[in-house]
Design a protein that fits this description.
The protein is mainly beta. The chain contains four helices and 16 strands. The two termini are 20 Å apart.
Length: 295
């Protein structure tokens, strides 16, 4: 593991979150965790699929942050990507939405505080692929963004996966300052629209409540059969992939390319990275994220 930047873990008990979640990933702008090549039984999930995670914003919200929380696929990512407070589209300040090369979702739920929040995103399809023309986002157990697909459409690429920014070459531009935790990916292929709704709404409400109780959150997530799952509870080093795998044993560690120390202490005094730190050309046209393939 090559130390780079300041990505690390923080303990929920140490920071007093009140959540029974062990530890969480902690980022300054430019830090990220990454799997360069996921080992799964499929290279992509067409839909329906779901993404779940916990998040807490840190740092200033005075100016537009333009953050990537999660990014799937090689090159510049975006296959798809989960954005926070990103300029453009119909999104207000502090909004959560999704981006893909063919389009962006409508306005999602807004987070403009420094509290912990639980997020579940469900993509049903685009009306041709999948089971319905629909995208929903649940926030803290409640459906807070219903039918917001707009022009967004994407299979869930299961090649490279980046947590905390869009892609390594854009880490200083798109990087998130804050905490992310309990990242889970669900393949809902074979379910009907009503079955997806029932499962996702149950997970959103159930997992949100579970984090505030005394039972094992990890066991609760695994009971819902995620395709991939990382809880960041390791003391240091790689974040281990916890979902059962029926094929050849994979290596789906999230490599802390931001230099995780695992000591649960933020190395202080570091502010937002210079936008030029990525060393590459990065242009946004018309308020939309613009990506090249990169290296």
């Amino acid at each position: 593991l090559v130390p780079f930047g300041t990505a690390t873990r923080v303990s929920h008990s140490t920071i007093g979150s009140g959540l029974n979640l062990g530890s969480a990933a902690s980022f300054l702008v430019g830090d990220y965790f990454m799997v360069q090549a996921l080992a799964t039984s499929t290279g992509a999930v067409e839909g329906p699929w779901a993404i779940e995670f916990w998040m807490r914003v840190e740092g200033s919200q005075e100016f537009q942050r333009n953050n990537y929380l999660l990014s799937f696929g090689g090159g510049g990512g975006n296959a798809p990507a989960v954005l926070y407070d990103y300029i453009g589209s119909a999104q207000p300040r502090g909004g959560l939405d999704l981006y893909s090369p063919v389009g962006r979702s409508g306005a999602g739920p807004v987070i403009m505080d420094l509290n912990w929040h639980h997020v579940v995103i469900a993509f049903y399809g685009n009306g041709t692929a999948g089971v319905a023309d629909r995208l929903d986002i649940y926030l803290d157990g409640v459906l807070a963004g219903a039918n917001i697909r707009n022009t967004f459409s994407s299979a869930l690429s299961l090649t490279r996966f980046v947590v905390g920014t869009s892609a390594p070459q854009f880490a200083g531009l798109d990087g998130f300052e804050g905490n992310l935790d309990e990242v889970a990916i669900y393949d809902m292929t074979g379910l009907t629209e009503s079955q997806v709704t029932a499962k996702v709404s149950q997970m959103a409400a159930g997992h949100f409540a579970l984090a505030k109780g005394n039972q094992s959150y990890t066991a609760g997530v695994l009971a819902d059969q995620p395709l991939l799952y990382w809880n960041f509870n390791e003391e240091e080093g790689n974040a281990r992939q916890l979902a059962p795998f029926t094929g050849e044993s994979p290596r789906n560690d999230l490599v802390p390319a931001g230099g995780a120390s695992g000591r649960g202490v933020r190395r202080g005094g570091v502010g937002r990275a210079d936008a030029g730190a990525s060393g590459g050309v990065h242009v946004r046209r018309g308020g939309e994220p613009e990506r090249g393939d990169g290296d």
